[in-house]
């Protein structure tokens, strides 16, 4: 039995969809299904009722999930303790961050950090918002990076988890240019020719941001869903291939905008400004972390 089978099973129980759970676990749907079957063979019982839609847990599956959650939490907590004890002397950080932040923000941020503090050993764990929060709450990271919008808060207790704003980003519609360097697809589109929309899933943070933006827009754009994913990097790849428009963080496409590979698909009225925050457990009084936190507060682009 492998830990990844248990993680697959928990993802399936959470998403109630083989395709979405497979995407979240970064594995093909056929490979994901085989791993669930392997887990069921190891347990000796069917854990998923595949006759219903969406698939639900069998009684055996419900019992196994209760135990699986507890076992995984204990394993990861123990791993965190061991990792802390095994760290070599010096400045080190365990960081949880969304995939987009890990790819597009953290490399330069860590480089700037080293210029101020000297060598810093950092372990970055790219994950979704939900799992990032769990890592912070369970003490499995010192810092958690996440996007923030005042109408879409993360609901972390401010008395227990401090935050500093470390950057401002913009969720903006982007598309490939045509031969005249104009947008291949331009908002708002028309009823006769709706724009192919490469969208986020509704439950992802960027998906919620996009729903907020479109919900308060003065006019409704004409869009037809073309592709859907939780990850901005997947959307970016499809936009780069000319498949349609997608709302992407400016930080993720800055280079492509500069060199003309991508262009805005509409004016700034279709943009949404979002903050980038870093969180920490206020009870963690590590000397280096306290020093780092004071530095981040001093250089923050906004107060609070």
Count of discrete alpha- or pi-helical segments spanning 4 or more residues = 11
Radius of gyration computed on alpha carbons: 21 Å
- Binned, the helix content reads 40-55%
CATH topology of the largest domain: D-Maltodextrin-Binding Protein, domain 2
Number of DSSP E strands: 11
Pick out the low-confidence regions. none
Beta strand %? 15-25%
Shape, please?
A: globular
Question: Which structural class do the helices and strands define?
Answer: alpha/beta
Class of the largest domain in CATH?
Alpha Beta
Number of domains: 3
In the CATH hierarchy, what is the architecture of the largest domain at level 2?
3-Layer(aba) Sandwich
Give the ordered list of helices and strands: HHHEEHEHHEHEEEHEHEHEEH
| CATH level-four homologous superfamily name of the largest domain | Periplasmic binding protein-like II
Which terms would index this structure?
alpha/beta, Arc Repressor Mutant, subunit A, 44% helix, D-Maltodextrin-Binding Protein, domain 2, 11 strands, two-stranded antiparallel sheet, 304 residues
Please explain how this structure is put together.
α1 crosses α2, α1 (3-15) packs across α3 (29-43) and α1 crosses α4. The chain has helices at 3-15, 18-24, 29-43, 59-86, 99-104, 106-117, 129-137, 205-215, 232-240, 250-259, 287-299, and strands at 48-49, 56-57, 92-97, 121-126, 143-148, 161-175, 195-200, 223-229, 246-249, 263-264, 272-281. α8 links the parallel β7 (195-200) and β8 (223-229). The longest helix is centred in the N-terminal third of the chain and has 28 residues, at 59-86. It has three domains: 3-82, Orthogonal Bundle (Arc Repressor Mutant, subunit A); 88-167 and 275-299, D-Maltodextrin-Binding Protein, domain 2, CATH 3.40.190; 169-274, D-Maltodextrin-Binding Protein, domain 2, CATH 3.40.190. It is of the alpha/beta class. Strands 3, 4, 5, 6, 9, 10 and 11 form a seven-stranded mixed sheet that branches. It has a two-stranded antiparallel sheet with strand order 1-2. The chain contains eleven helices and eleven strands. Belongs to the LysR transcriptional regulatory family. This is Transcriptional regulator, LysR family. It comes from Paraburkholderia phymatum (strain DSM 17167 / CIP 108236 / LMG 21445 / STM815) (Burkholderia phymatum).
